Structure formats: structure tokens, C-alpha cells
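To whoever is covering the structure queue this week,

Two jobs came back overnight. Logging them here so there's a record in the thread.

Job A:
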Amino acid sequence: MTRFDEPLTKALDPKTAGPLESSLNLATVGELLRHYPRRYAERGELTALDALEAGEHVTVVGEVSRLMRKPMRNRSGTWLEVEVVDGRRNKIYLSFFGRVSHVVEGRLKPGTRAMFSGKVGRFGRGEGGKWQLNHPDFELFEESDSSAAEFAAAPVPIYPAANGISSWVIRRAVGVVLDTLGPLADPLPAEVRSRHRLAGLADALEAVHRPRDRGDVGRARKRLKFDEAFVLQSVLAQRRRAAAAWPAVPRPRRDDGLLAGFDGRLPFQLTEGQVEVGEEIAAELAREHPMHRLLQGEVGAGKTVVALRAMLQVIDAGGQAALLAPTEVLAQQHHRSITRMLGDLGTGGVFGGTGVALLTGSMGAAGRRAAMLDAASGAAGIVVGTHALLQEKVRFADLGFVVVDEQHRFGVEQRDALREKAGGGRPHVLVMTATPIPRTVAMTVFGDLEVSTLTQLPAGRAPITTHVVPASDKPHFLERTWERVREEVGLGRQAYIVCPRIGEAEGDEGDLAEPAADDERRPPLAVTDVAPMLVDGPLHGLRVEILHGRLQPDEKDAVMRAFTAGEIDVLVSTTVIEVGVDVHNASVMVIMDADRFGVSQLHQLRGRVGRGGLPGLCLLVTDFPAGTPARDRLDAVAATLDGFELSRVDLEQRREGDVLGAAQSGRRSSLKMLQLLRDEEVIAQAREEAAALLADDPHLEANPALKSEIDRLLGDDRAEYLEKT
């Protein structure tokens, strides 16, 4: 009998087991059985041709309609072209050369039904070109073959395949292990299966791989989808219970401290949302276990004020706060804005207020020593910094609160390094973002983070209008873009022009556009190329300066101060101005090669305009025509200012990422069937069931099969990841 954890090298012949592991990374029987069919074929069906992408490895099913012998163009001899149809006039062509073509000609007769597998390409020009497979592998559905009856009466599973291993080889391998599979321990308790009318695990695996009809497929997918949600929710429930057991120093609110003084001097009224979220955070800071909360809100919703008020509460209770920012420009901006908001409360000293220190990697030795001394002595209640805060030499007198701005820009290890600097337990942690990236959305839907949301914009924020500028299709639109910039400057306003690259040699890690699809073309536009082109051309006579991560800190600071003071008309920059930069007089932003930026970055960038009551304008310049994925992404950004709606667009395009690992994209997901946007109801049901089970059996002593499945899912690397987060 075959075991679920048995190596495939023992369960299958080496010629099959080897390619399964080398091409698909499937090493055990369980991993093979969790390699579910991508879709199911029916009689006469061919893969939808409008879904094909050149270069993709596909499996198509259809009927041979005719064979054509054609002469070779540049040498003697012939080759064979086979036309395959799907019964709906869709066609794909197979090409065979050399001796193989004669063998194939004897097997692929008109009327023959078969599956064909290979890399698909387009032959011929434009939309009239023909889809073709060169030398594909194939399997016939012959009347004498048992697979013929299966094909005629039941769905035929089509598996995700790869070079070196075809779908039908995977199907046969699955059949071998299913036929010899021993009893399976079911990780889903019987009462949970009964409540949700779910099949047993063994029945579900049989049905998903060898269905008798579409009903089998539906029942199997329902069970296996719930499995993924339930096991993940059990992991997260365990994690929440473990986190609740960690000690943290309570930081209760004082009625006569810095926070009260700060609130009494605020020149504006907090929104209802800011007050409500502030109360949530204040209550958690007063507890004996660490807060771990995500604060998400639109660009300009006032997250920084909420975070600062929480910092002051911690300082009033004798602790310190650290604010971790992804770039030096943002760290400097936070330092200036916090110092400005505090006024004389930020002059330092035990009684008069609290010091605000800045620590970045490019500071001079004297400045770094002074900031580190203020952090270690406690003279600085607030320490703002970049990755420099994570260095081993940096010490705090009593770090009680960590604020991470734009948390997706930091790795788990980096955030953990700062958290470990707290003594007497773990610090309270607040992470902030304006547009949740897919993994953050995933963790939110799975219920792993406590979430606060700011939806109101403070008074004075103006609406932002966004348009896509198709530079290649309509060059005069780009000319009009520069005219609009001149018009805004003529009204006494200022402009940003953002490029995805600095120049020939790139700068620091937070300075570039996120990788986006459709980049296989000319190099991205660079600040050092675009700025002189504008100065000598359409923006001649305006005061144009550049800003990027390769400038020295004092240079970057000087440029930002000059821009803030209105001494610069147009700032040509990289993404260093993506978050936190606050220049109220800036009213227009032009993003060059906008298709090279991620959805989250585009939303963040345009949030830099319209901040001072002036209507904001954002122009997304691209060479991509309408109907392409890159253009669709830009159109989605232009269509809404709702950052949470855009996060769903981002999630649909990039998938969830590995919810239990460090991957930020969806290519390495532990989820095989579950999709967050489609299956939120399943996730909610599984969360409720997992929480109830863990409450009664926290160590899973009565549920060893579930414990085993969790251990298998996590592995050493994911277990370490969860421990850190």
C-alpha cells in the first residue's frame, strides 16, 4: 500500500518519478495528489484559442480534420502539417518534420481524437496568423483504448504540465498511486465535514482526479478548497494564541502628558475615523500583550497623525517609539513633519517634551553618533529612521512602540530585527499602508491582522483627476501634457515628473519602479535623460531640478526644501517621492512609462498632488495601446481613487502570494484552489471552525491528522517565518 508521504521514487518507475520532481517539484505521493487538474476536457473540446498566449506550454484536445504534406522551403524533402478542430470552427495546426512526420502520418488519421501538448506559437502575421504546435507530444483516444470510453463519458483532467512531462503522463501517474493508496487520516474533523456537507479526503482526491461527471468535480473542489482554508486558518489561530501569550509593557494613556498637550494645540479637528481608530490603538497599547495592528487608509487620510498620537501615549508611559521609513527622503520628511507638529513639545528634555531624532544610513559620523546616543539614553522619545535603525549598534533605552510606514517595503527579517531591540517583552507594532499589496490583502482576509481603516479625508484635500496619455498612438497628447504643466506653473503651482529609472547605474533599493508586466522593450526612461530633454525643449525657461536616491543626503534634503519653499517649478524624480512627501502647492504629476509601475505605486505617487486644496491632476504616460494588460492596469488606476478597490485589481493580477511565506507575488503560493476574492465566504467559515477547534484543543492532541498537515504545510522555513512575524 502506498503512503501519502512516500517518495514518488518508490511509488512510480524512475522514468516517471524523475521528470515529476525535476520539472514540477513533486517529490511525494501527497504532493502529486495535491497537483490538481487545471481544467477538464470534454468530447470535441479544444483549448479556447483566444486564451492562448505565445510561448505558453498548453494541452489541447480535439479532432484531426486533415493532413497536408508540404515541401520544405530551403531544402529538399517535405514536412507534415496536421489541422485539428474543436467542432466550433476553431483550429490549431501541428507541425512535424523529418522521420517523425512519417510515423505521425500513419497514426493521426482524419477523425482521430487526441490530446496534444507543447509550446504554442503564432505562425504568420497579425491576427490572421495561425496557432501552431511544433512537434507536440500527443495521446490518442482510440476506440480500443479504455481511455476512449473515459473520454466519451467523463471529464478528462488536464494537468499543469511542463517540458519533459505531459498532462497524460501525470494522469497515469496519479492513477497508479490512487490504485495503491492506503487509508488516509482526514485532517478535517468528522463534525466539521458533516456541518458543511463535505466529502471525505480520500473520496475528494479520487473525484478530483478521476471524476465520473462534473458533479464529482464540484464536490471534490468544494472539499479541497475548504481544506486549504481550514488548515491555514488553524495555523493563523495558533499564531494568534501564541502572540497573545507574549508579554509587553502596558503603555496606558495619561490625562496630563504630551498627548493631552498635543491634542490641545492641534490646528484642525480630527476626523471621526481618526478619533475612533485612535481609541482602538490606545486601548491596545494599555494591554499586557503586544499590539499588532494594520492601519490602512487612503493617501492623505491622516495616518501619520494617528501614529504620532499613539507614539506620544507610549512616551507618556515612559517608553520610546521608532518610526521605520523605506527611503531617506521619506524619513527626513517624517522627521520634519513630526518636529513641526510637536512644536515646542519636541524640544527634548524629561519635563518639557521629547526629543525627535533622525537616523539614516548616509548621515555623517557625528550626526549618527548623536542620534544613536539620544536613542540609547532616552533623550529621544521618537527615533525616525531608515534601515539604519536595524543595525546591531543601535540601542534604545526602552523601545515600547514600533511604527512601520509602507510595511510592504520591508522584509520580515528587517521588521523583526527592530522588534528585537525592545527589552522586557515585545514592543507594540503598528504597520501603515495606503494601498494594501496583495499579500497584505491576503493576510487581512485570512484574519491574521487586527485591522483599522481610515476612509475619511481631512478637510482641505482636493480631488485628483487621472488620465492615461497614449504617447505612441497620439503624440499630440504628450505635447498637450507639457502644455498643461506650463499652465499649472503659470498659475503659480508646481509639478512632479516621475521616471522609473535614475540613469545608467541605479541607486538605492527604494528608488526604482516595482517590476511590472510587459517590460520587454526599450530601456525605461531615466531622470538624468528626461530632465535635460525637458529643459531644452517643452519646459524651457522653467526652474527644473532632479531628485533621486543616488544624491547625497544633504543634496536630497536641499532639493526637497527648495521645492517645498516654491523655489523649484518642476521636480523630475524617481519613486523617492512615492510616500510621505507633502508639498501643498504641487498640483500636477506626470508619470513617464507609467506601465512599468505597480498599481500600488501609481496610487501612492498621485497622492503627492492635491494636498493643499488645489485640484490635483495625474497624467499616466504610456506607449501601450488599448486592450493590452499594461494599458488595462493604467485604465483601472485612472478610473478610481479608491485605494482598496485598486488593491483588489492588484490582487486579481498578481494573486495572493504565499500567505504563509515571504513571497509577495502569486507564483509561489501554497494555495492550489483557494482564491481570496472569490472564496471569502469559505475563508470566513473556515476561520470560525478553526478558532472553535483550537479553543478546545490548542495543541491538537485530539486531532493528530490536522497537526501533521500543518507541519507538512509549514516546513522549517515557513515555521521560522511565522515565528518572526
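Job B:
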Amino acid sequence: MKSHTDLQVTGMHCANCSARLEKVLNQLPEIEASVSIATEKAHIVYNPDNTSLADLIEIIRGAGFDAHPIRDFAAEKQARAAALQYQQRQFMLSALLTAPLLIEMLLMFSGFHFMLPGWLQFLLATPVQFWIGRRFYTGAWSSLRGGGANMDVLVALGTSAAYLLSCVVVLANFFGMMPGQPIYFEASATLITLVLLGKLLEARAKGKTSSALEALINLQPRTAHVERDGVMQELAVEQMRVDDVFLVRAGESVPVDGIVLEGSSSVDESMLSGESLPRNKQPDEKVYAATLNGRGLLKCRAQAVGTHTQLAAIIRLVEQAQGSKAAIQELADRVSAVFVPVVIGIALLTFGAWWMMGSDFSTALINAVAVLVISCPCALGLATPTALVVSTGRAAQAGILVKDAAALERAHHLNVLLVDKTGTLTEGKPDVTDTIPASGTTQHALMQTAVSLAQGSTHPLSRALMDHAKNLQLMAVRAENINELAGQGLRAEINNQPFLLGSPAFAQQSGVTIDEQQILGLQQQGKTVLVIARNTTLLGYIAIADQLRTRSRDAVAKLSGMGIRVVMLSGDNQATAQAIATQAGITEFRAEVLPQDKASQVESFKRDGLLVGMVGDGINDAPALAAADVSFAMRSGSDIAIEAADITLMRNDLMSVVDAISLSRSTLNKIRQNLFFAFAYNVLGIPLAAAGMLNPVIAGAAMAMSSVSVVSNALLLKRWKQQREVSP
């Protein structure tokens, strides 16, 4: 029996670190791991019979890192703040010790020949190199011991070479040797200081990538007004139980998921759905944790608390998506895996080439150091995961829950989008519009027979009949031997007589004579017609219509404008499907598609070499959703559909699909920009350093800022806007 856990990992400094740790874990039997440098988390699937949580932590420590189980968000935030403060202190101390060395170098560049004594430079640079910079040595040792090489190896090699060369020169000068030979204490100390600055700025920027998730977590109130034993008391939300009765006053947030018992109000659910308009709440309607009560007093009963609320589910999905990897990241991972050894080789070649061309030892060494320093692969490793962390958080704010990064990436390439009609294009709340009894049957009798047959069915049309009968205060009679045929209708017995309720085609197959012209007229209005018969005797027709969602037509137009072919799937007959498709602005549709055939429709498009998306909401959509390359489920749909889908749309609006694809394209563009800049930086920087055209200090500054620029560029995804306006 497999289990899974998420661990917070500390001590990772670059993409090579996360790749190495992932490799170490995945080499172990019955363990599958994914490690993210952006979130600094490891998601591990393991067999608890063979490996315990303590074993996993020890394995990670053995690889040179540390780990602990995920704490609550507040504790993790406090720990990150403490780590950031420590980094700030280290940087400030390093900058203080480096400042005199840097000032000396700047004065020399300005034409003032002032030099601190060598022994003083040694005293200033040594604590920077071995005390403040010890993290690079420990990181490099752990990496090399694990059979890899990371950023720390490059920094340790580069700074140690400049530092040790300077020590040799100072010692030689003490004995009157090597006069006039330059020393490079300022280069080694400044490089470490600049790398620390880059890591500090990077940590601050990475902290902002999860701001959307933090905002979600902070939405839930800390306390609730709960009624227990007839007494109203204020309790911590963590103490609430299912079936607790609680009050939500005007201006307060709902503490847990529940159902309204008394009162009416408007509730802002934008944090769940991304929809800015508040929703009116009446008795028997659901309310969700962290949504904001605008006006009025609501008395509710708790239905889901703690980790079972809708908010908790959203947070879990966002964290899961942020820890997953997109296919495009594999390129960066492959490059990072061989990058450091290749750079070390280039640095050795640079040293050898300069020395063989007649340069002195120090010039050759410093040029090799510049190659080592400017080649840090941090920017390359951060290019993809930081963009994904920002985009999945931004998606959650817009009511789009992405299960994994690969789905978000695939959405960018969609060619065809198959759209289920009922509950996706339409409201999914069909209403009875026409009751047409045959000769010798009354409307009352027709409706009573229909509702008696429909009472055991969960089909949306059956529910529409039940709701209509409830409004008419009609009582159903007992039906027996019910046999329902998916997508066609049902047969049952009432008072030992056989009855039928279903589509016109189903009725004809059963030997019932129908008026095809009358039925066609109703179907051409976009109505679904049900036939009711006793044995083979027609009792009449009931027409049911489902209203098109407000923004469906606008969404279809935008999807077509994005170059995506929209195809509607419907179980309705050709005439009804044609009418709904026309209303929605869809030119291509498939009618009379049985539930079990929806998946085969997906497969038929995939066989043509197309990347296929599927939008649905019902249980019968689940196979098609699972078969699609990218699947979208409406929040109002069944749990099975949501489980099968890659992306859940909290807004119950086809425009959310437009938003998801738009965000996918923005994210992929941002990842490509980041990868381009990361690759271009190294492609340009390494030759310049090898040619002796880059001072190691300048190379260090460029390297430090490259990671910051990549993370900052990813943060621009926060500016992405969802579609809100409806076309006239």
C-alpha cells in the first residue's frame, strides 16, 4: 500500500541541488519523488512498510540537505522569515568586511593608486571566505559526495582560487619575493558578497511567488460564533464540528462550509470563483469557508470543517500544482545536470590557453575564475518553476484550479475543445416549458404519470420533472420494475401496467406512434421532448428547455478567435442540438451522442493528430474527461468529473476555459523568456569571461542579478487579467 508525503527541504541552492536530491530519492526501491527548487518541497510516494518518514528525512540529510514535515503555513512563514533575517545579517557583515576592499578597487579604477596593506586585506577577506562563505564549501562537499556538482562547487572553486593566489603573493612578499604581483582578495570577498546579495534578493522575490496561496490561507477567520446547548459562544475555527450551528454577521467571513438554515444575504465568493458579483443566499443554499457575508445575518449548519472544506481543497490543489513539473522543465533539468562539469572543463581550458599564450599565472587563473563565477546555472533552474508557482497561484485567484503543471502547459497547444451541452454551455437546470397531453389524457394525469416514472432517476431531465411537479403540488405514485437505459429513457410499471418515458426515438423503437412534425417544431426551439406512453399508447409530450449560460456565446467567440475549434457534444436529437449550437455560435456539433460514446469522440479527434480538450460536468463525462489531453470540469458538476479533470473551473462558466488557456499561453511565454535569458546570459557571458573581457567581480554581479531577473520576470504574471466583460 503506497503512501505519500510532502517534506520541506532546506539547503538547496540551485536547480542541480533539487535534481540531485530527486535522483537520490528515485534510485531507492518503491520511492517516487518530485523536488521543486521554487517551493523547496519534496513530494514523495513511498511504501510505509519498507520506508518510514524518519528514514526519508535521514536519506535527505545523507544527501547533504535537511528536511522536516510540512508545518502549518504560519509556522513555515515564521521559519522563512527567520532564515531571511539570518541571510540579511550574513550579507550585511560580509558587505561591511568587503567594503574597504571594494573601495580600494574602485579608487584604482578611478585613477587613484591606493592599496591597503596585504596583511589587512588578508584579515578582512578571510572571515568572508571561510566563515560567511562556509555555506558554499559545505554545499560543494555535499554535492561532490553525492556524485554531482552544483552552484556551490563553482563559487567555492572560483573564490578559493582567487583567495589562495592572493595568500601565496602576500606570503611571498613577506619574504621579498614576487614584487608587484597583484592580489585578488577584493575579488574573492566581493564575489561571495554579491552571491549572498543575489540569494537574498532571490529569496525575497521567491517569497512573493506564493503570495496568492498565502492570501487564500489568510482568508479563513480564526474564530466563529457557534451555538452549542442553546448557548452562543465564540470558538476557534479548529474546534468546530460537523452539524454545528453557527452565525455569520454582516461583514464577517464564513468560518466553514455549511448550509443556510435561516436568513438571507449576499455573499462575496470571489476568492473561490474569481467572480466579482456577490451571490444571494437563501435557506437550503450552500455557503463556503472564507467567503464574505455582505449584508444580513445568516444562521447556518456546518457540513465540512478543517481539511474537508472547499478552501482546504483549493489550497491542497494549488500546492500540488506548484510542486509539479511541466515538460518544458525537462530541458532545463537535463542541461543543469551536465552544466557544472562542462563549465569546470571550460575554466580549465581557459586557464591552460592563457598560460600557453604567454600570460602570467595570475592572469590565466583570474580569467578561469571569471568563467566559473559567471556560469552559475541558478537562473536556468529557476526559469520554469517560479513561473509555474506564480501562474498556479494567480489561476486559483481567478477560480481556476490546476492539478498539475503539465496540464497547464498542454492547454497552450489545444487544437480542439469538445464541450458538453448540459451544465456546461447551458445552466444545467432544465425547466418544463410545455405539457401536451394526447386525446383522452389531462395535463394533470400526464404530469403525474411522468413524475411517477422519473422519481427514481438522477438524470437532469428527471429532476426537472420532479421540480415542476413539486411546484404544482403533484404527488407521485409508486412505480415498480424500473429499467433505465442511459441516454434513451426508462420503462416501469404502475399498478401492474407498463409505462414508458423517454426520447422520441426510444418511443418509436418501443412501438409508440408519435407526431414527428409537432415534436420537430418543439426541438427547433431548442427544447428537449419527452414522450410518455402506456404500453404502446401515446399519453402525450413534455418539452423541457435548458437556458444557455450568459457568457457561453461570448466564450465560444473568444475560443474561436484563439484558433481553437469548438465542438459541442449532446445527447439531444439533431434539431435540438442544432438550435442550441446556433444560440451558442457553434458551427460544429455531434448530436445523439450517448454517454458511453463521449470518450470515443475524444479518441476520434486524437487519432487525427489533434490535441483535444474536453469540458464537462456530469458523471457520464468522466470517461471523456479522462481520455482528453486536457480536461476541464465545472465546479457545479459531480465529484467524479472533478476528480477526472486536470483543471477545475470554480466559476461554472465557459469563459473560465478561455481564462485557463490565456493564462497557459502567458505562462509558457514567460517560461520561454526566462529560458532564453538564462541561456543567452551563459552563451554570451562564458566566451567573454574566457576571452579575459570580464573582471570576476563584474561577472559575480551579473551572475547574482541573473537569478533575480528571472524570478522578477516570473512575478509579472501577477498582472495577468481574467475575462470579465460580456460582449454586447
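Note for Job B: The chain has a mean pLDDT of 82.

Please reply-all if you pick these up so we don't duplicate work.
Q.
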